Amino acid sequence: MENVLTCSANREGLPAPDEACFDLYGLLAKFEQQFDAVAKTHGLFLGVNVYKDTPRYFLGDYLRVNDILTNLVRYIISHLQDGGIFLNVYSSPLDQGYYRLDLIFTDSGIGIPEDQLNKIFQPEYQKTVSGHIYKNTPSLYRAKLITSLMGGDVSVKTTFGWGTRYSAYILMKCGVTTPYRYYN
Fold first, then answer.
1. Which of 10, 18, 53, 55 gives the lowest tally of CB atoms within 10 Å of its CB?
2. Segment 124-150, tens digit of pLDDT
3. Cα 39 from Cα 43, distance rounded (Å)
4. Domain boundaries defined on the chain
């Protein structure tokens, strides 16, 4: 599993993910506090739910996990006109002490037309909704790149008129309860 992460990082010309023990719950609390305030300035709300079986500590790249969350929520906020954003976080154990960590954002927007879904990961994609033109910042592109460096992916499913689900998953080891190098 480690070779997969290192090889995908090297293929992109970037360093392999930094492995440090971090508090996922602490990261999510800071994320919610920061982006709930940002969402409110846009007339939106943000909710975060961590499923009970999700470990608190992970051994992985704290900064990249934060970058994935930040890029996804910034993209959603910039394209959502009203309503809310929900983040559900859960994990599944894999082999060799690894976990699949799922970060699933759901918005209450109008959705994305099916014919435009393949384009949203392109850095310069523009879409028109109700006469407004939205230029895609590199947010989704960057989130997809970072998740691939961490052995994962980002996908988007939508029902036009009902909202959109942005699913990201990454692979990380479960951390110890007493971290040796702790990011909080």
1. 53
2. 655 555 545 555 556 888 899 899 999
3. 6
4. 2-176
